[in-house]
Specification:
The complex is a heterodimer of chains A (287) and B (409).
Chain A: E1 2-8, H1 10-14, H2 24-37, E2 41-45, H3 51-63, E3 68-73, H4 77-86, E4 90-96, H5 99-106, H6 110-125, E5 130-136, H7 143-156, E6 160-164, H8 172-184, E7 188-192, H9 200-210, E8 214-217, H10 231-241, E9 244-246, H11 250-260, H12 266-270, H13 282-285
Parallel strand pairs in A: 1-2, 1-8, 1-9, 2-3, 3-4, 4-5, 5-6, 6-7, 7-8
Chain B: E1 5-8, H1 10-18, H2 31-48, E2 51-54, H3 59-62, H4 68-79, E3 86-88, E4 94-95, H5 103-106, H6 118-121, E5 129-133, E6 156-160, H7 167-176, E7 181-184, H8 189-192, H9 200-209, H10 222-231, E8 249-250, H11 253-261, E9 279-280, H12 288-298, H13 307-321, H14 327-338, H15 341-350, H16 355-363, H17 368-383, H18 387-408
Parallel strand pairs in B: 1-2, 1-7, 5-6, 6-7, 8-9
Antiparallel strand pairs in B: 2-4, 3-5
The chains are: A alpha/beta (287), B alpha/beta (409).
Chain lengths: 287, 409
């Protein structure tokens, strides 16, 4: 049985969902809960957002016992320098990869993006942190482009590729194919699925079956638009299908979501179909 | 080239739930209401191109000439549903388009709906075998799960269960690999529980996204289906894929910016295609562009000099209330930020017309009790001769507005 390591991105992608605004104290507290539940990596935030965010990051690193803390960076060296000043365990660089992202958003071309990516990876790796590279909008990328980008990233020193399905249009077949392609380059694979077609959980499951060790989740599945892969839903499904182990069991994730719910305004969670918590007390009594 | 068929079973689920002793969630409708509801539902879904399964106990009111004998016979068969992967003879429901094998029992249910295209009835299909369950089939889809079913694809309708959250994916894979027909319901397991099959609207959109030709049209009517479901007591969560009314709300600065440049970069399907619209939420992650857009939407004139200050105040307020700002809160902040900071106190201190305070109150409609309080406060401010009383009154106004904010936030 293979192991799946959960990467929780509630504090980064989850918080970007409209409506949510986590204070520093809340972020630290959520991180402590996630750490206690057995989440392997916590994506804690974006250091480039400012000194306040960096302070939050350092506090999160203080409260985590076993979970590794990662930071999210755009594809620019200034962002990564900000990250290095926080000294996280993992530095994540997000690199747009599809044609439409490169041409429409960055107004650049593929070669330039690849050289920028290699420079960023080398800079990030210079601090001794593990570097993971996220390929944004990877569901609109051909296999050849993905293989080329993965090779470039591997040469520069990245160890892990995150397949970031920004608009959630992957089908399980395509996910499995992409994951195998990344594994063939000698890299570890990570899946970041969105729920626009209600397929975040099956896509993440399929990636795990194809050999991805890392799976991105958020509490209650919060996130942009229809959300991300929900931690409770994913772990419950993983338990049911009985092929993989995970440090967080389905019950554990359900307990965690229940514990964390009273910290969030009720109206926000109702929009995400979270059943009402019975008492607010249970959040504070259990450690 | 065949077209895909998506069969909706909401009416059957409802009529099963209405039976005594059913474990299903009951719609908040009486028997007669359910019939009216069913008529509307049928028309709406047919308009969009979905197939609708009509349960045997509804047509008697839907179509007056229904016989009770046939109803009971078909009803008993329909109740035995298992989650285990089973293949059973699927003659237990009557579809609009396919005649039942038992001609005299089924003939009552076949309606001649005008506007139905002949292509659907001409396939000569007498009955379908319904494959239910298969909740755990996802790992096996890569090692020939569907291949073994393919010989049956012209008679097999697939209704995967959602115990493991994979129903939509299984349905999509089945159709993409050559299956013909999927059974599910609008809203899927989020509304009807995991045994109700995949959410058809997700399957439909996913097929369209992969440029597979479906015979679906008018998908912008989906919010009407959600409204009908709400009327029956089944509220769609606002972030449910495809159906939720909040899925196109954006807050974070990058996304507002990206969507202004090219909406397709961050949206899997256009909001218009499913009858929704984008909205901008102002909150902790908003950038200047978002503030400018929102102010323009609300018809507020926001001078550029104040944007930076407004952004800081917005972020602070959002974090303090752990929630994004409502439209009214944003409007009030805009009002207060455009006033130079010194002028407010000076106006209150002199008590002359106390213009800034009254404008704030006038533009923001607050509850009657609070308005009463502010009116009282302003009147005291107007009548007061000493500066001290005016200042305390102004404080009172501030406190009252802040209170109302808290309550409405």
């Amino acid at each position: 049985m293979a192991d799946v390591i959960l990467v929780d991105t509630t504090l980064r992608d989850g918080e970007q969902a409209p409506g949510f605004a986590f204070s520093r104290g809340l972020k630290v507290r959520l991180a402590a809960l996630l750490d206690a539940a057995g989440v392997g990596q916590i994506e804690a935030g974006i250091p480039a957002m400012g000194p306040g965010e960096r302070k939050t990051l350092c506090k999160i690193m203080d409260v985590c016992f076993q979970a590794r803390v990662s930071t999210w960076n755009r594809l620019c060296e200034a962002d990564i320098k900000n990250s290095l000043s926080c000294a996280p365990h993992v530095i994540h660089v997000c690199c747009p990869l599809s044609d439409r992202q490169i041409f429409c958003k960055l107004r650049s071309d593929r070669d330039k993006v690849m050289t920028a990516l290699q420079r960023c990876i080398e800079l990030a790796a210079s601090g001794g942190a593990e570097v993971s590279v996220g390929f944004e909008d990877v569901s609109h990328v051909t296999g050849q482009q993905l293989a080329q980008a993965a090779t470039a990233a591997a040469q520069a020193g990245a160890r892990r590729i995150r397949l970031s399905d920004t608009v959630g249009r992957y089908t399980p077949d395509a996910v499995a194919k992409a994951v195998r392609l990344v594994l063939r380059q000698g890299l570890e694979a990570e899946i970041h699925a969105h729920n626009d077609f209600g397929m975040a959980v099956p896509n993440s499951l399929m990636a795990a079956y194809a050999g991805a060790r890392y799976v991105d989740t958020t509490l209650w599945g919060i996130g942009e638009r229809a959300g991300n892969c929900g931690m409770g839903a994913f772990t419950a499904a993983l338990d049911r299908l009985e092929h993989h182990n995970c440090a967080v069991s389905g019950q554990g994730a359900a307990r965690l979501e229940k514990k964390a719910a009273p910290f969030i305004p009720r109206a926000l969670l109702e929009a995400w179909n979270v059943p009402a918590a019975r008492t607010a007390r249970c959040a504070f009594t259990a450690s | 080239m065949h077209t895909f068929q998506l069969l909706d079973t909401t009416l059957s689920l409802f009529s099963t739930a209405m039976r005594p002793g059913s474990y299903r969630r009951r719609p908040r409708l009486s028997r007669e209401d359910l019939t009216h509801w069913a008529v509307k539902w049928l028309a709406l879904l047919q308009d969009m191109g979905f197939f609708v399964e009509i349960p045997p106990d509804l047509p008697e009111s839907l179509h007056a000439a229904a016989s009770t004998a046939a109803t009971s016979a078909t009803a008993t068969a329909a109740t035995t549903a298992t989650t285990a992967p089973t293949v059973r003879k699927g003659t237990f429901y009557s579809n609009q388009y396919e005649p039942l094998p038992d001609a005299e029992a089924g003939s009552e249910y076949i309606t001649d709906t005008p506007g139905m295209d002949a292509g659907l009835t001409s396939d000569g299909q007498a009955s379908w075998l319904r494959l239910r369950g298969c909740d755990h089939a996802l790992p096996y889809t890569e090692c020939g799960f569907f291949d073994r079913l393919m010989p049956l694809r012209d008679v097999l309708e697939f209704c995967p269960g959602d115990q493991a959250g994979c129903a939509t994916a299984l349905a999509v894979l089945w159709l993409l690999r050559g299956g013909r027909r999927v059974v599910g319901s609008i809203g899927g397991s989020a509304l009807h529980g995991p045994s109700s099959g995949p959410a058809l609207e997700e399957v439909a959109l996913c097929l369209e996204n992969h440029e597979v030709q479906t015979n679906l049209r008018n998908l912008h009517l989906l919010p009407e289906a959600a409204a009908l479901l709400h009327k029956a007591g089944f509220t769609v969560p606002s972030h449910k894929p495809v159906l939720g009314n909040q899925i196109f709300a954006v807050e974070s600065g990058i996304h507002v910016d990206g969507i202004a440049k090219n909406p397709a970069l961050y949206e899997a399907y256009a909001p218009e295609s499913v009858g929704l619209e984008r909205s901008i939420v102002v909150g902790k992650h908003s950038g200047r562009a978002a503030l400018r857009l929102k102010a323009a939407q609300l018809g507020i004139d926001l001078p550029e000099a104040h944007e930076g200050r407004l952004l800081a105040v917005v972020q602070k307020m959002a974090v303090r209330q752990q929630h994004s700002l409502s439209d009214r809160q944003f409007a009030m902040l805009c009002e207060s930020i455009t006033l130079p900071s010194g002028r407010k106190q000076r106006a209150a201190a002199t008590g002359a017309k106390d213009a800034p305070i009254t404008t704030t109150v006038a533009t923001a409609p607050i509850t009657t009790s609070v308005t009463g309080a502010t009116v009282a406060a302003t009147s005291t401010a107007a009548t007061a001769t000493t500066t001290a009383t005016a200042a305390t009154a102004a404080k009172g106004v501030k406190g009252a507005t802040a209170q109302s904010e808290k309550r409405h936030g």
